[in-house]
Specification:
This protein is α+β, with helices and mostly antiparallel strands.
């Protein structure tokens, strides 16, 4: 039930994000006197709609996006002569630019508001101090460091040696350790397959265990997670929350850039156990994000952890939608904006040369590029959906 609730919560948040994006186009279009005949969430057959003024609002059967139909969005559209003066392409370049950019602005604004609300209502998570005390013992040796335990996997060295939650590791392979970094270094220094003594403090006395380290991806694997102390959430005021939100958006945009660079090389790994080992492999579709939201709600984390993770997921989706639409490719918003900018630059150059304004761009010449962009976007989307169905991403345990 918790998983289903998380999935539904994400779908609702996604629909709200789409509605806000399209409202970012609709509101300025109406403000500038353009004619918007439709505002819909989804595509395909209409499930429900109503009309207010000249605009029809409603929901369609395939909830994979939304649209606002602004009359004359391109010169290729056939228009009623009565609508010609209000056609989008006949408006000032500044007004067209604002309408085009409105959707992206709304996505980033929504992300900013959510991050501020998270910082003020839930708080910012303090990292805490990682200790050498055992928090959990892994039951098995995973196939990779990003994979959960599966059937047929051997017991982890920590479990086989008798390590328990609450044990404090004081020595590893003859080296005294008092901090997690020292223990981590000692584990990395040891060879996979080597049997090492592990001294732990248990019940006020020291107990010596022997663990035969496993090999996971060429690295030594013990199979324990460390306890973190001093960890918690701290609520902050509006100014601090605004700074936190701006920084969070900047870091997310930078992360998306890294993902875009890494994605082509990660495509062959989408259907392998190493999928989550690179930033590009962690990209998912709407199906994957819905599944992750369900995992968040059904996890054993505290309500604050769940709320923070869920809001972070919705924030990242909105920033991704905004960043994607900025790309100067038709039919994305960035492509339409690039056309307007090109028209203005061409008009400026013509004036400098004493020539008349060349006018609107011939959109028919851009159709082949548009078709290629659409095919690539749809193809990538289908590939990610298949990967999320066959090889879904899992939240770290």
């Amino acid at each position: 039930m918790a998983f289903l609730l998380g999935a539904v919560a994400f779908v609702l948040a996604l629909l709200l994000s789409v509605m806000l994006h399209e409202a970012g186009h609709l509101v300025p279009a109406k403000r500038f006197g353009m004619k918007a005949s439709q505002y819909f969430v989804g595509f395909g057959p209409t499930l429900w709609s109503f009309r207010r003024g000249e605009t029809e609002y409603g929901v369609k059967g395939i909830l994979l996006g939304g649209f606002v139909k602004i009359v004359g969005y391109t010169p290729l559209e056939e228009l009623d002569p009565a609508d010609e003066p209000r056609a989008f392409y006949r408006q000032k370049a500044s007004h067209r630019s604002i309408v085009i950019a409105g959707g992206v602005v709304m996505n980033f604004l929504f992300a900013f508001v959510l991050l501020m609300a998270m910082a003020m209502a839930i708080g910012i998570r303090e990292p805490g101090t990682v200790t050498t005390t055992v928090d959990k013992v892994s039951e098995c040796v995973p196939a990779s460091l990003t994979e959960p335990c599966g059937e047929g996997r051997p017991r982890s060295p920590a479990a086989a040696a008798g390590l328990r939650a609450g044990d404090r590791v004081v020595s590893f392979d003859g080296r005294r350790v008092s901090e997690w970094t020292e223990l981590r270094t000692a584990i990395d220094t040891a060879r996979p397959g080597q049997t090492v003594p592990v001294v732990v403090e248990r019940g006020g006395r020291e107990v010596t265990l022997r663990a035969r380290l496993a090999d996971v991806g060429g690295e030594s694997f013990l199979g324990m997670s460390a306890r973190v102390v001093g960890q918690g959430y701290e609520r902050i005021g509006p100014i601090g929350a605004a700074v936190f939100a701006a920084r969070g958006i900047g870091e997310t945009v930078a992360g998306i850039g890294q993902v875009a660079v890494d994605l082509p090389a990660a495509i062959p790994k989408l259907f392998s156990p190493e999928r989550a080992s690179t930033p590009g492999g962690q990209v998912g579709s709407v199906v994957g994000a819905t599944d992750v939201s369900g995992q968040i709600f059904s996890s054993e984390s505290s309500w604050r952890d769940k709320a923070a993770l869920y809001l972070s997921l919705v924030v990242s989706v909105n920033i991704f939608l905004g960043a994607l639409n900025v790309l100067p490719l038709l039919p994305l918003d960035g492509g339409h904006l690039a056309v307007v900018v090109y028209e203005r630059l061409r008009a400026w150059y013509a004036r400098r040369r004493g020539r008349p304004d060349p006018g609107l761009v011939d959109m028919t010449r851009l159709l082949p590029i548009t078709y290629v962009a659409v095919v690539l976007l749809i193809g990538l989307g289908v590939l990610l959906i298949l990967a999320d169905l066959v090889n879904p991403l899992r939240l770290p345990q």
